[in-house]
Structure formats: structure tokens, C-alpha cells
């Protein structure tokens, strides 16, 4: 029986989740500093990164030889990101 390990799936899942989280946190700061239509690129990065993160979640959790601790941490970040996106899509930012 092969032992469990972390592979590129876990590391990329965590990396994409962190990049999406940082993009969500710093979107207002970067847009105010750069003043160059960067908000569209960042919004697309957040949406595409969230979709990639959800795909990596399925890929990582379906592998039986993969350790799950790092994937669970990345999944929590992804759930928080998707929840924040759903909140802003639902309410349109009018209550913030």
C-alpha cells in the first residue's frame, strides 16, 4: 500500500486559493493606486481563480493517495472566497 503525500495538486490548490484571497483583499487598494482599468483584470482573475480552485478541490479530494490537511485549508479559503463573491453578487455591494 502506498503512503499518502502532498503533491502538486495540494500545493496548486492552496496557491490558487491564496492568490484569489489576496486579490479580493487588495482589489480596492490596487485600483486606487494604479488608476488604469486594473479592476476588470482583477475581477476576472478572482472569478477564474475561484473556478480553477473549485476544479482543483474536486481533483485533490478525489485522489486517495493525497494528504488532506493542506487541501482542507485551501477548501476553507475557497468556501470563504465563494461566499464573499456570492454575497456581493446577491446584494450588489449596496450594503457595504
Task: Produce a short descriptive summary.
With 96 residues, the protein is an all-alpha fold. It has helices at residues 8-34, 38-62, 69-91.
Description:
The chain has 96 residues and is mostly helical. It has 3 helices and no strands. Helix 1 packs antiparallel against helix 2 (38-62), helix 1 (8-34) packs parallel to helix 3 (69-91) and helix 2 crosses helix 3. It has one domain (8-87). The protein has helices at 8-34, 38-62, 69-91. Keywords: Membrane, Transmembrane, Transmembrane helix. The chain crosses the membrane at residues 12-35, 41-59, 71-90.
Helix content: over 70%
C-alpha termini separation: 52 Å
β-strand percent reads under 5%
Mean pLDDT score: 88
Coarse structural class? mainly alpha
Number of strands: 0
Largest sheet: none
Low-confidence stretches: none
Overall domain count: 1
Number of helices: 3
Radius of gyration: 16 Å
Please tell me what the overall shape is: elongated
Compressed to H and E, one letter per element, the order equals HHH
Amino acid at each position: 500500500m502506498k503512503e499518502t503525500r502532498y503533491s502538486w495538486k495540494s500545493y496548486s490548490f492552496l496557491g490558487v486559493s491564496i492568490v484569489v484571497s489576496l486579490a479580493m483583499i487588495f482589489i480596492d487598494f490596487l485600483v486606487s493606486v494604479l488608476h488604469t482599468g486594473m479592476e476588470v483584470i482583477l475581477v476576472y482573475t478572482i472569478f477564474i481563480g475561484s473556478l480553477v480552485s473549485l476544479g482543483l478541490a474536486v481533483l485533490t479530494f478525489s485522489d486517495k493517495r493525497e494528504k488532506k490537511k493542506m487541501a482542507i485549508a485551501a477548501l476553507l479559503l475557497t468556501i470563504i472566497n465563494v461566499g464573499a463573491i456570492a454575497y456581493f453578487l446577491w446584494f450588489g455591494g449596496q450594503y457595504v
